Amino acid sequence: MKSILHACKFAIAFFACVAAPAAAQKTIFDPARDLEGFRQRAEGPFADAYALEVYTGLAGAELNATLLEDVRKRWLEERAKVDAVVAGDAWNAGAWMIAKRVARHPALRRVALAEDGSRPPFVVHVQREGPDSAAHSAEVGALHGAWRQAAHAAVQKDLLLASGAKLAPGRGAVGVVLLATRSVYEDLQPDLGVDGWSNTASWDRARRLVVGCDDDHAKKAPQGRVRGVVREAVRALLEAHVSAPDGTLGDLWLEQGLVLRYSQCREPDPASLGKPAPRQDLLTRLAQEAQVSERRAALFLPLARLVGIADSAALEKAFLDQAEERGVPAVAWDDCVVVAWAQSEAWMHFLLDGRDGRRRAALARYLGAAARGERGFEQLRKTMGGESAASLQDDFAAWLGEQWKAAATPGAEGGALHAGLYPSAGASRPDAGSAGAASSGLDEGESMLAHAAAFAHATGGAFGAAKAAFDELLASSPSEPWASRARRDRERIEAALAWRAAMEAALGLPGAKLALERGGKKHNLAVEALVDGRLTLAPGKSGVASIALEEIAPADWLRQSFKKGEPHEPTPLVRAWLGALAGDPKWDRAIERDIDERALALKEDVFVWYPEMLKSAVAAGKLAVVDGLPGASDRAGAETLLAAIEAALEHRKLAFVAQREGELLARARLALQIAAQELGPADVTRAEVANLADGRIKVRWGFEDARQLDDIEHEATIGQDQLRERKKLSRLRLEPQASIENSALVLRGPGVWALPLSLEAPYSIKLKLKVKDDLQKELKETPYFGILHSVAGANRWILTDPFGGVVELDEGSGISRDAGIAPTRKLLVDEATTIQILHEGLNLSCGADGKWTSTLTAMRRRAGRVYLVAVGDYALRVEDLEIEGKVDRSWYATMRSDWIERHYARLAGKGK
């Protein structure tokens, strides 16, 4: 640091000299050319130890011979000092360099740190200030030190020694900064590196520093306190042995897999890092993704594609390319990352420990090659002795199945699911129809709508109607994947119909009962008769006297009593399918461990596309409602149609709804135009609106309902420039706010809020208000806070103040007229003021607290929109607002048009 300060002083002195005239010949300075060894050190591992920025800052300057010699002399002196350190012992040089980086770090300079006496390869700086005592800091350092050393020992023993990788130049030590608490870390985290990151630690590759904290959120579990720091310390340890030109391992599969494998910290003993078992949550996640063929095809990257991926952009492209090649939906990026890391960690467990560790030495050799920059699957295959990708993947999949079985992983029955874990690229979509199928007659949207309509019958219990709908759909040659899905669902419906026939026979026996749930209450009703598929039920509180078999929903069918072995007992598959249709979260209990092909197909369908299909069935029903409504001829019919169209457009992301979007919106606009013909003030405001005998209206806002705030539209650009310029107000809030608080409208200025009314003279306005906050002082001039004003035309304003003063502004003509404005007033917080405005046609009078105080005569315009204004750094409380007058019909026509466009825009954006 002293060398940098000296260099800075020198630079200042140099520029002072260079400004003076010089008779000697001058040289255009180039540090790489004029300073011995400059380029070599600028490109070396200790570049940031030299004050290079001082000399590069002089590049291009004109130096005479004297100054040039002085620059060279100072460079050689500083170079010699740094060379003496970095050319010595690698550990001491690394520790010295880490201390420099910590001292210069823009975030860590805000924290008091002291170097900890940890053993190589780690140089640790521990926070010594804050709520933790010195004794506690020592305890934290010892705890973390034990786990770091254990991780280093495990990686060294398993991989580093066998890999042949050596510490790279300038990386003789791994820097770790240990902060006292998680809150301190979170405060600094935005300014830390994110080349590797967790909730409690980050890896700054540029500075070669791990910065983390003792996770005080997990103090009951010592291993939980250290996990984040250990994870990034392992990453830094691996990269300390990289000699590749880019300075990184360059293989996310290898790096992330090893980091996760050696930093689990799940047992109380640090020695557990040496040989951890695969995590249960990791196995469960992989097993769940392996069950569903579409997700399996999208998420399980073959080894040849996974190895050698260098960054997240390449990883994302690999997932997208694979999904496209296999004809399956792309998966959300977050899921891709989680499963990629889970696969990487599982692969490291397999290669290090699986099959008695026979591939551990080969993995170590690949790590050494990757550290030298020799990466990718061909390099891995070479180090594995030429073993093929297929052989590696098959053995890994079989081993993974064994782990599932040993851990009793939910959803993974033995090793059965490992078959087809890595389908070949270009394979057809998992549910594609058989070869030679008829060409598609229905497109994607039409097929989906037809399937949704059939599915809607099934969810309502109309299995016969559903089968007929599926038969019609299949006869129309639907597109894939709907054809395959329709065939599977028709097979399930046929099984359900066969079971229901047995139920029908049982319900026809004497003493039979039907269980139903209505209104949240369960009923067990005696069956009196069964004729032509319709049950007659004994009277009861359910209110159901008769019901057809086709009207009994799946959830009610599952409520019936069954005895094991009876003809009408549902098979496990039928029971599971009924539960899925009913939305039962435990629908698969009956087939949880069933690996029969039909059971696996049902699990896959329910996980992958039944949620979408259930929504599609609802959407199909809503479209049917729209199609069943007549064209609107009055406001009531228009509102009914609009509500139905709005409900359907909530599902516009579904293909069959999106195909009809234009038609639905066209019908909506027509309905809006019909409804707008009968709109009045009561329809466009939430205030109390009454029609007076003389044709005027009376509008009152009491601000009891928070929804009335929707009437107050903030106008960001109206009037504020005029107000600021007129009164030179500087203390203006940037974001005006309005709220309903304790039966009043509270405006926090500055701001202008428009009410949904425009009036024709004569009209009257009455407003009760209180001023809040810091106005318990004498005001040097009357501020226009809480002003009611009426816009009489473009750039024309009528403004009032809380004391009855009024001013007319006409920006177009430059006219400004005041009446009743006094230069000095005293106003107290919470002092109530009632402002009144009366516009008689030609004259406008203004008053306060029951007294008329000012009048403006010969008003140029007699109509305008009503606004509320707040100006200044205070709050204005409006307790009551009352208006009487005629509605401005010209404005009203514009408002009606705006109303149509606003509601049309809302419908056009519905569901997007």
Structural summary, described in words:
This protein has 912 residues and is α+β, with helices and mostly antiparallel strands. Helix content is 44%, strand content 18%. The chain has 31 helices and 29 strands. The protein has a 15-stranded antiparallel sheet that branches. A 6-stranded mixed sheet has the order 3-4-5-8-7-6, sandwiched between helices. Helix 9 (222-239) runs antiparallel to helix 10 (252-261), helix 11 packs across helix 15 (333-357) and helix 26 (635-649) packs antiparallel against helix 28. The radius of gyration is 39 Å and the shape is flat.
Please give the alpha-carbon distance between the first and last residues: 57 Å
Tally of strands = 29
Q: Which ranges are low-confidence, i.e. pLDDT below 50, for 5 or more consecutive residues?
A: 1-23, 424-440, 716-734, 775-794
**SS class:** alpha+beta
Work out the radius of gyration: 39 Å
What value does the average pLDDT take? 78
Beta-strand fraction estimate: 15-25%
Shape field: flat
Report the total helices.
31
Specify the helix fraction band. 40-55%
Main sheet: strands, sense, barrel: 15 strands, antiparallel
Can you give keywords for this protein?
912 residues, alpha+beta, 15-stranded antiparallel β-sheet, six-stranded mixed β-sheet, 31 helices, 29 strands, disordered N terminus
